[in-house]
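Model it.
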Amino acid sequence: MGIRQAFTLCLAALFPVLSYAAIRLDIPPVWLGLVDFLLLTAILIAARLSRGGRAKAISRLWPIAAGLGLCLAVFYLRPDALIYFSPIGIGLILASLFLTTLAPGQEPLITRLARLERGVLPDDLRIYTRNLTCAWAIFFCLLILESVLLALFAPVKTFLLFTNTLNYLFVAAFFVTEYIYRRIRYRHHSHPSIIHLIAIIARSGVIAATKK
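Modeled.
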């Protein structure tokens, strides 16, 4: 795992921690939205720079720069709206990553990652990884629905507590529970450790892994 990949993972891990700390420090919700958006931007930039050569990676940053300019304009005009941007936006990005790879002619995302790790996939694991890709897509769609409902009916701090902290714990619980189930259900196959799995994802890049 390279330095940039490790830096991206550290930022992603610190995201819920810093957001929760900001809530506990009673930072005004308007500014929490800006802090969350800047953290998300830093993660996306680090992920982009970790892929390919420096010149090629920098050329991919223009969509992020355009999005940053647009959202700063939104923050200036409607600062309250930015609170809901990052959590719902993250959910949409993650759900689309899994859903688009389930389309006809595409290789499911987790099947792709498993093949990068194992080479040739046995039939039972190929079917399982496709179903698991579908399960992750449904899971993130449910998180989006939760975020929208909280945005409509819950206080701002409750929305931020769930979307910026607790939802990350739900994702970790899903990841670990699935790993334990897979090791029991498919114990006739070898399985890499969780740390090795994270290293594979960081090294290959989730977005890059969706491309053949």
